[in-house]
Amino acid sequence: MHAVSDPRRLCGVALTCLLLATPCAFAADASGTAALTTDYVWRGTSQSNEDPAVQAGFKVAADNGFYAQAWGSSVEFAPDTRASTELDLVAGWSGALSDALALDVNLTRYLYPSTTVDLDWTEAIATLTWRAHYWVQASHSNDALATGTSGTYAQLGARLPVTDAFRFEAAAGHYRLAGNSGYDDYAHLQVGAVWTFASRADGRTAELRVTAHETDSAAERGFGALAGSRIEAALQASF
């Protein structure tokens, strides 16, 4: 048994409670994203077999900080399982702890519909942000990557504005996976530039992102050609 004995039920209960608790706030505060990327890269490894991916998300949030989110992407990381779609369901809370610190905590359920094997799994994630420019993230799952074993991920990151429309971003992460998971612990690094070429007062924006990714040799042993060096370009709209 995992620590979260029925994560699908837990996510469902959490989302239902959020909707029942603050329906008016949810109706008033909704946002979405749509993106096209040359390669869907997650924690340093390609989830789309180095091919382009289409992505979209929708989020509803209450004034008290609680939110629910659904996000999806095309994938192709395990062709033998016929995995072609990823759907992430998220229930969480985010808010300011002080003038400088903000916290986001959530439970994320990763779903892969229409596969020949069960690839679904759940992860708890916490992100602490300082002055909106630096962050530290930690996450844990008792069923990391649907292996039935534990995994803990940590990341340090920074976003460095150059102008109102242009910034650099960098992050380094380490994934610690159980010895019997079939994967070694690995580290990755990413450095990117973001250009916001359209921005409106109502929050609608359009961005172009170019990101270089690098993983260590342990990732390449575990994930083969899906790890290593790669450059990803993405066009994203928020509304």
Explain what you see.
With 239 residues, the protein is mostly beta strands. The chain has a single domain (7-238), classed as Porin, CATH 2.40.160. 12% of the residues lie in helices and 54% in strands. It contains three helices and 14 strands. A twelve-stranded antiparallel barrel has the order 1-4-5-6-7-8-9-10-11-12-13-14. It has a two-stranded antiparallel ribbon with strand order 2-3. Strand 2 (41-42) and strand 3 form a beta hairpin. It is globular and about 45 Å long. Residues 1-7 and 17-28 have low confidence and may be disordered.
Question: What labels describe this entry?
Answer:
239 residues; twelve-stranded antiparallel barrel; 3 helices; 54% strand; globular; disordered N terminus
The number of helical runs is 3
In CATH, the topology is named Porin
Radius of gyration: 18 Å
Low-confidence blocks of residues = 1-7, 17-28
Secondary-structure element pattern, one letter each: HHEEEEEEEEEEEEEHE
Work out the strand percent.
over 45%
Structural class: mainly beta
What is the CATH architecture term? Answer: Beta Barrel
Largest sheet: 12 strands, antiparallel, barrel
Count of spatially separate domains? 1
Helix content: 10-25%
User: Residue-averaged pLDDT, rounded?
Assistant: 91
The strand count comes to: 14
Distance N to C terminus: 41 Å
CATH H-level homologous superfamily name: monomeric porin ompg
The first-level CATH class name: Mainly Beta
Envelope shape: globular
- Strands of the largest sheet, in order across it? 1-4-5-6-7-8-9-10-11-12-13-14
